[in-house]
Amino acid sequence: MQRTTLDLWVGIFVTAGVGALFVLALKVGNATTVNASDGYHVIAEFDNIGGLKVRAPVKSAGVVVGRVEGISLDTRTFRANVALRIDKHYPFPKDSSASILTAGLLGEQYVGMDGGGDEQNLKDGDRLKVTQSAIVLEKVIGQFLYGKAAETSAAK
Amino acid sequence: MFGTLSGGLRLVGRRTINAVWRMGAATRFMGLVLLRSGLSFRRFHLMIDELHFAGVLSLIIIIVSGLFVGLVLGLQGYETLKRYGSAEAVGTLVALALVRELGPVVAALLFASRAGSAMTAELGIMKSTEQLSAMEMMAVDPFARVISPMFWGGFLSMPLLAAIFSVMGIFGGYLITVVIIGVDAGAFWSQMQSNVDLRNDIVNGVIKTIVFGAAVTAIALFEGYDAPPTAEGVSHAVTRTVVTSALAVLALDFVLTAFMFTGV
User: Fold this and answer.
1) Tens of pLDDT, residues B25-82
2) What is the ipTM of this complex?
3) Is B75 exposed, middle or buried (CB count within 10 Å of its CB: 0-12, 13-18, 19+)?
4) Between chains, do B160 and A28 touch, taking CB under 8 Å as contact?
5) What's the pLDDT at B38?
6) Where are the domains of chain A?
7) How far apart are CA A84 and CA B162, in angstroms?
8) Which distant-in-sequence residues (6+ apart) come within 8 Å of B144 by Cβ?
9) Phi, psi of B197 (to 5 degrees)
10) Which chain A residue has the Cα nearest residue B189?
């Protein structure tokens, strides 16, 4: 008799513990998002990636369609090669473009994909040529100041 | 002058040698525990008893502390994040803090003081009342019959307790920020889900709890087995269990965090 009540309590404990692990995995974590195995890889070349990090999301129209898998510098062109893995459920036309955007004012940076009009879709290993780099604040301010200076000197 | 100096040096030397000796003894002890753990898997009710002792009896303190830690995290996080207009991110904050750090560490500290100290006391008193020697006289191996079921019971309970702690904490954070303060429930969960990663956060947290469970249980059992067979010796051993396992958990946490969460 003693044995069975004890077994019951241990059973409740183990069930609660394993249940808690499942809650953590399914409700708290994102186990259901893009799977690592199925997807295709494309490489996007950027002049400047700003603060983009590996594992940053790739979004199209706000929907997460993939992840950044790797970032490297091409020492011939001195442009950044960003390897993107895109879920195989989302085919993109060959002339799609990628840009580096920021979520919110202080948010993290992500890659935005805009679909093009080509009839052929991107395949594994393709390169995206049309890209827009991250906005680097110093450069924007620099351009603004140059513009202002040019305006004032023209007005004189 | 010279006498006190050499005396001090001798003391340091003795302490060091003693510490190294105990380290070796602990390693040999753990080797024996692991080698003779076959019986605890064959006679499963031995392990069920220890799961009850280490796990079920620790449930109340784990659930209540988890809830309160979550309540505090939610409240503090909300007050700070509100200033930056991102109160919804409180779900992410609570979940990441609990899953990565607080869940494993606080659960391990509670486990050390609730179950670890009890294991040390039980084993120490078994030794001082010569129950362990009596078993050996009857050709019952105390390692197989008593110590390794205790180890496996503690080892298996710890990840489950920490998971329950984290879930209760997240529930506490939900309770205070969504139900009481009125943060949007959808944003709370969706921000949490988009920022907590299964592999990087949850699995790493579970790995931490497994390491902590092994460390705390091993320390508790060794201190109990190694305790001088007197009332005072057992009481010192219990104190040492709590202190050593707290230090071990915090130090291991630093090492594991350095491995897991730095870099990319």
Assistant:
1) 999 999 988 988 888 788 888 888 889 989 999 999 999 999 999 999 999 999 998 8
2) 0.76
3) middle
4) no
5) 83
6) 1-32, 40-141
7) 36
8) B36, B37, B38, B39, B40
9) -100, 140
10) A28
